Each structure stands twice: as C-alpha cells, then as structure tokens.
Amino acid sequence: MLISPSQDLRVAVVGAGRMGADHVDRLTHRTQRARVSAVVDIDAARAAQVAAAVPGTESFSDLDQLLEAEAADAVILATPGFLHEGALLRLLDAGLPVLCEKPLTPDPASALRVVQAEVAAGRKLIQVGFMRRFDAGYRQLKQVIEAGELGELLMLHHQHRNPHTPPGFTNEMVINDSVVHEFDAVRFFTGEEISSVQVRVGRTTSLGTSGVQDPQHVVIQTSSGLLADVEMFCAAQLGYQVNTQATFERGVVAIGEGGELQITTAGRTGQAVDPGFVTRFREAYDVEVQDWVDATRTGDIAGPCAWDGYATAACCEAGLASQQDGGPVDVPLADRPALYA
Ligand code: ISE
C-alpha cells in the first residue's frame, strides 16, 4: 500500500483497553503522518467513548464492520492475545498492515498458523509490538554488542520487576505476559534463536497472588551457547524496573539503571522509580508507532515480525513446561520461511 505524501495514514485501533487508549492518545498527539480513523471494541460504549476523544473518528463493535466500512489503511491490534489469531487471519485476508501488541498469539501452534498465512499472502504485513527494541538504551546496547569494542558478549543478566499482580494472575502469566519480553530481548541482542529455557523457583513473596510462585528465575541458552538469566518478580511492590547488564570479555554495560534525575529531599536521596511500563517505555512506544507508520506508508514493516512472535511463543511454551519440574526444556522451531530471512 502506498499512501500519497499529502494524506495521513488512517489507523484503526482495535481493542480499547489500556494499551488501545494509550495508542489512540499517541497517534492523536505525538505521531506524524497518521490519524486515528476508527476505534473498535466488543464493548460498543467503550469504543464510542475512546473514539469521542478524537473528532471525526468512527467506532465499531466488530472487526468485520470496520473492514466492510473500509475505514482504515492499517490497524493497531490491542485486544487480549487469545483473540489475535482470528483477527490477524482476517486482516491478512483483507491485506491490511497491522501492528499487533504482544503476544502474536498465546501459543506456538496458533502463531505458526499466522506465520503460514502471512507466507501464503507473500508479504510482511504484521509487526509485533515488542516495544523495547525501540528503547534508546536497548538500541545503544545492541550497537555496543555489534561494534565488538568490549570483545565478545559472554552473558546477559535481566531484572524485570512489576509493582503488583492484577486480579486473576497465574503462574503461566509470569512467562506469557512478562518473561516473553526477555525472550525477545535476548533474541534481539544476540541475533540468535533460543535453544533452551529453564525456570526455577525458590522463596516466594507473601505479597503476591496466592498460588503464584514469585519471583521466578529463568535461564535462557541461545543457539551458540550464550547464557542469559532473568529475575522475574511480578509483585515487587517498589514500582516498575526493567534492567539489563551485559557482560563482555572486557567490560560490563548496564541499561535501565541511572541516567534519571538524582533527587535529594526530606532526608532521602535517590532516583524515582517508574510506576509502570506505559511510562518507562513511553518514548519507545512513540518511536515504535512512528517507525511503523512511516514504513507502512511505503508498504513495509519496521520492527519485529510474525516470525519473532512465533519464536517467542515457542520459548514461552518451553518456559511453562519447565515450570512443572524446574529442568531445562528445549525450544523446537519450524523451519524459518524465506520471507523472514
Ligand atoms: C505487561 O503485560 C507488559 O507487556 C509489560 O511490558 C511487562 O513489563 C509486564 O511485565 C507485563 O505484565
């Protein structure tokens, strides 16, 4: 699809929950060369309420209505993951580009069906919303790895801490909702597939959801043998923290820590901790959406693709299997189609 330079890309936001509403705000106030043309949510009142914030925006309660009305050039899909497969297959069929919030789908079998449908369509229409790849620190660390100035990358250490667990939180969500980002980060930093995943649990906080083992310790091995470990702590109470330390042959590079204002007041000194991922990664989301808009206008994508969504879903499945007995579990992958070479 080629959009003429004088026209804005018409974007429909499908799913008007927290992330969907955040994308409507971003597209309206901070994104160039695009506008929200429609909001879709199964809750028609919610869709209308979010659409009302942007004059001239239509609202629909169903994706088919949007497609019939031809009210969008592209879609941001922000519904829960279990609804993604059906929506993505319909969007591929309609030839509409889509930025799909993670996960691509909740399991590798359905993710592979989406990959196969895109391969059959013959072009990349799906970008997956792994927004950390657009974070300045992540990009700088990737450059340091590629430049090789500090020698070979030897290990990665990740800490991922959420303030609280939402109602209904489960052990599976620790991996599928949160560690999935670390799987993508390790693949992004190393450029390699992950070959095995091991999840171990030790002491559990008394401040989380009953029945959920938290924190969890995840050891990831890539195809060349690099080891990465993750402390995933979902009810950490302290705010939202995402840090990575990369150990090289001749040094260590840390991202996520420091760089913020050092504030001294009322007998204490230190740095503020972000309340959640929407603020911690606000700039990354902005860059992600702007790059996606600009690539979409020329018929391209600008970031992680459906294959990345499939590969991380396979890692999650191995993580869930490892949660059962704590042992390492291999990550089997289908052959990578030429479309994703
Ligand atoms: C949440 O769903 C996200 O996607 C955040 O980026 C992640 O940091 C958090 O752990 C998840 O719960």
Q: Tell me the major beta sheet.
A: 7 strands, mixed
Helix content class: 25-40%
Bound molecules: (2R,3S,4s,5R,6S)-2,3,4,5,6-pentahydroxycyclohexanone
Largest sheet strand order: 12-11-7-10-9-8-15
Count of alpha and pi helical runs = 10
Class derived from helix and strand content: alpha/beta
Radius of gyration: 20 Å
Shape: globular
Strand content: 15-25%
The N- to C-terminal Cα distance equals 22 Å
- How many runs of DSSP E, i.e. beta strands? 15
Low-confidence stretches: none
Quote the average pLDDT. 96
H and E string: EHEHEHEHEHEHEHEEEEEEEHHHE
Q: What does this protein look like?
A:
The chain has helices at residues 18-29, 44-52, 63-69, 84-94, 108-121, 136-147, 171-190, 277-280, 282-297, 306-325; strands spanning 9-14, 34-40, 58-60, 74-77, 98-101, 126-129, 153-161, 194-201, 216-222, 227-233, 241-248, 251-255, 263-265, 268-270, 329-330. It is built from ten helices and 15 strands. Helix 5 (108-121) runs antiparallel to helix 10 (306-325), helix 6 (136-147) crosses helix 7 and helix 7 crosses helix 10 (306-325). (2R,3S,4s,5R,6S)-2,3,4,5,6-pentahydroxycyclohexanone is lined by residues 162, 177-178, 181, 277.
Which characteristics define this entry?
341 residues; single chain; alpha/beta; seven-stranded mixed β-sheet
